[in-house]
Every structure is written in structure tokens, then in C-alpha cells.
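Before a colleague's protein record goes any further, I have to sign it off. What it holds is a sequence and that sequence's fold in C-alpha cell form. My question to you is simply how this chain folds and whether the C-alpha cells agree. Thanks in advance; the entry in question is below:
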Amino acid sequence: MDTGFDQGLLAPGRAGSPAESATSDTAFLRALLDAEAALTRAQASLGHAPAEAARAVTAATTSARFDAGDLAHRARAGGNPVIPLVADLTAAVPDAFRPYVHRGATSQDIMDTATMLVAARTVDLVLEDLRRTERALSRLAAAHRDTVMPGRTLTQHAVPTTFGLKAAGWRSLVLDARDRLRGVRAVLPVQLGGAAGTMAAFGLDGDEEAPDTAPRLIAAYAREAGLAALDLPWHTLRAPVADLAGALAFAAGALGKVAADVLTLSRTEIAELSEGTGGDSSAMPHKRNPVRATLVAAAARRAPGLAATLYASMVAEDERPAGAWHAEWETLRDLLRLVGGAARDSAELAEGLRVHPDAMREHLHLTAGLIVSERLAAALAPALGRARAKALLADLAARARTEGGTLAELLAEQPELAGLPLDIDDLTDPTRYTGSAGILTDRALERP
């Protein structure tokens, strides 16, 4: 049945992912109710509301009477879903405790706190998938520590490298993303300030004898919600959202780098890698497309634009802006979904990735030995001088490309090299020129 709601038809990257469920309308509704219940409990913990009120409000939020679709339509009247939700929640609470529903708060307090709850719950899921990805990449790096392959710069063969070092580099980026998200997750805050950030309606009245009452209420709210507490209401101080956007965009880019390499190295004419279970084509039965990498790459391209919108929303006028705050809601949800889907797909990609060492070894010889010209330049420089060694190798490289033959064969023909203590076969063996790749890989894998 067509419900009329977005079911992810155009978003296979996030369809069915844990992040999709964690950012659904139902999840946001749950977070809004959790934020309201936490507020009443926080007030009760400080004696600002009866304990019975806290229990009554919390009990009411577990009811199935709240309908996200109905709230969405009614939200048009006031511009946000908290207004109709408060009306429904108040009606669900016994008469004696209705004054304690949403007491002192403004819609943005609840909306921002709920958004942070959704973000925290989603980031936890992303971190779990990053852990899976990191572990799979660690196994690949260790297994292929000494698997030599062409290093490529500006699309061309450069010098030999190892797949172990490449996989270790991917893992390092994933760990960087993990660390940034962990840092942001730890400080996602509740929002509590009232109508204009003064907390006046909470009945605190600037009590000179108890100047810590407002901070204590914020701290109690944070404890009840399971979030952090800031010193100030942040209605128009949007650092928490901007920091989250930056960490999410970085994660998308880190995973996108892995995907970009997989896409390149799984091309038919390269085939050094392949996805464990490729995707089908609607027209070509022979194809096994790198679908997981494709979806991750798509997410990485979209994420920076979404993050830019969230950064732009920092320009928020007055004590509550018209439009800047509202622009964050869908944007942040899209970004959470994108990164959540990309993390899921990256874990599946890394866990199923197939490495083809034979193809890598074969490609080392595509340039007839030119891939080690840097090594030869260093070896010949003491005898010929740096300029002459470079000029000779440039000439031999041009001949190898136009006349055929290998660099080793052409070197053997050079009279000026006769009598030099050079092992040409060794010097032109690509597998003997990987520098400190193995040591660097080992060092990278020591990072927890």
C-alpha cells in the first residue's frame, strides 16, 4: 500500500539500515516524548515538581496515542511539531499533573534536545559499523602486508607499494572518523533556556541566594536525558550542530576515499579488487557491479553540501531565528541517514572485499620496468651524477615506450654502465622496491 511517505525508493544507500530506523518519524517522535518526560523528571529531582507528576508524564509518553502523521499536519499552524505534541501530551496526563507538562520550556528546547537524542542514538550505530569496517581493514592490511602492487599518482603508475599499506591507510581514516564522532557524541547537549534563553518561566526568578539553580536544572535535565550539559542555552549558538555536521561529513569523506579506491581497482581492465557480492545489471547478465562502493561514493558526494547548510545555519539572528533553525531539521536527518547508510555499506564492503594479488603482480610489469626508474636514478647517481642518471633514464624510458623491450634490457646495452657493480635484475625487480611499506603498515596497525 502506498502510504504517501518516503520509504527510501530513491535512497538504497540508507534503505533498511539501522540509521534509517533511528532517524524515522517514529524515532523523532519517541525522542520528543523522551525530552518532555526527562524535563519533568529533572524538575521533580530538584523539588520543582511533584514526583507523581514526573511519573505521570513519563507514563503518558509510553502511550501509542501519539500519531506522527497527524502531528506533522498540525505542525504547519505553529511551524514545528512540538506545539501540537504538547497539547496531546497534556491531554494524556491526569488533570492534577497537567501544569507540569512542558513547564517553563519553549518548543526549541524540546526540539533541539530530541534532535540531539536522535543524533546520539544514530551516531552510536554508525560507530558500531565503523568498528566492523576497521576490523575488516585491519585483517586485510595484515594479510597483505607484503602484497606488492603498483602505486598510482595522477592516474599513472608511480612506484611500487603494497596493498597492506593501502588498507592500513584506509583503516587510519576510518579511525580518524571514529575519533571525531566519538568526541562529538560525548558532548551532544540538552537544550534548556525557555522563551529567550533566560529560563525565566522555570520559576527561578534570578534567585540571588541560589545562583546555581539554573545550572543545576540544566545538569539534572542532561542526566535524565542522557546527554551533556552546556553552560548556556544554545538556541542561536549552534556549535553543537555544526560540530556534528563536520564530524559526519568527515566520516562520509573517509569512507568515500575507500570506496573511490575500490571502484578504481575493481574496473574490468584492472581487476585488482572485487566486491564479495557484486550487484546485477538489468541489461547485462555478465556484470557484477561494485554496488556497495558505489553507494558509499554517492553518500560522500552529498554529505558536504548538507554539512554546508548546517554550517550556514549558524548565522542565526536574535534569540531564535526565523528559518535558520528550521533549515537544520531535515538536513541533519539526511546527513545522519547518509552517513549511517555509508557506514553500513562500508562494513559490508570491507568484510567481503576480495584481493587479487596475481593481477597486482602482473600490473607491476605493464611499464616494462619503468615503475622502478626512481630506484635506478638513485643507484646510478653516484657513478654518473644525478643529472646524467636522470637524463639517461628519461631517454631509456622513451625508447622503452616507443621501441619496446624492457628497461633492464636497455640498461644492459649502455656502454657507460659496463663494469659498474650493478645488479640490474635486482634493481629492476618491482617487488624489491617497496621502501618501508611493511614497517609503516605494522606501525599503523598498532593504533587501537
About this structure: The two ends are 48 Å apart (CA to CA). The CA atoms of residues 392 and 414 lie 9 Å apart.
